[in-house]
Amino acid sequence: MIAYIKGMLTYILDDSIIMDVQGIGYELFCANPFVFQSSLHKEIKIHTYHHVREDAQILFGFKNEEEKFLFTKLISVSGIGPKGALAILGGVDVAGIAAAIEREDDKFLTSFPGVGKKTARQIILDLKGKLTNVLTITEVETDMANAKHADAEGLQEAAEALKALGYTDREIKGIMPELKATDSKNADELIRKALSLLMKK
Prior knowledge:
CATH 2.40.50.140, 3 domains, globular, four-way junction DNA binding
């Protein structure tokens, strides 16, 4: 299996990145490819998971071992495939997801695309108690997860408004890291901030 790839980051696409390793371009699918924006045209190391199916071999890329570890745990849950696991990882940080599982917060888990109540309960049943040995979860991180859930709602609302205005997913994903870093999580203020950023692109 391919555990990691070290090479030149040459392209960032809507849902993947392209790494050039000695003249061979590897496509790695990521939760949010734009987190690697600052490393474009630089040599970097990306942790990978090599997913093998009867009809395809797919590489998934992660910014750290913790994210990769959680991905492998999520796809072991019945009802969660690789795309579903990436959608979850793209919505909140690793500690936030782990904390939600530990406190059995199925409402938080169902906020992710493709995760219904049955799947959320299955995630909790299969993974509770299996993440804390690897991931450090404190009360502070749990509080942060709650806050991030509220933040995610504002960001989601802003993203939907931008789509309605005609902006593409690529354009919206490109400014998402800057929006997440904004102090205010009010949807109206996020939309104004987003429009300002998009006008500068």
